[in-house]
Amino acid sequence: MRTKSILGLLMCIALMFCLYTVPSANAASAEEEVLQVITNWAKASIASDFKLFSSLYLHSPKTSQVHPSAGIPFLYKGWEVIEKDWEPTFKNPTGTVDISIHNPDITMLGDNAAVVALYEIVTATSITGEETITQHRVTRVLQKVDGKWVIVHDHASDLPLK
User: pTM value?
Assistant: First the structure.
């Protein structure tokens, strides 16, 4: 009887060990977490949610952006500069915007860094109903900081419409 009890206890311990070491089905992979940041970027832009948008970036002087709508010629450097460019757009929308993301390609550069290349279509509709469609090639560099993926560099360039 004692042998059966010990064997049963060992089997329970082995089962618990197996359950402990197997990753949870709900645990997201790094690629999925990075893709969620990219998806949230589009959601924040569509909803004019600057709080969400801001939460997706590293608030650092090292954060940078090259963007076709930028008011200065080449490179925004530092979160404060990027924030000054984007915040008015979110606070005073001049219509609606829809952003669709296509073919996101995630390259992990290690456990804490990733590059995402994608194609996006932005459809902006002004208050008067005028529609403008732009297409962008986008590259975003993300870094995992304090357990959270954030954008540290954002680059977009316009593509001509055909």
Answer: 0.78
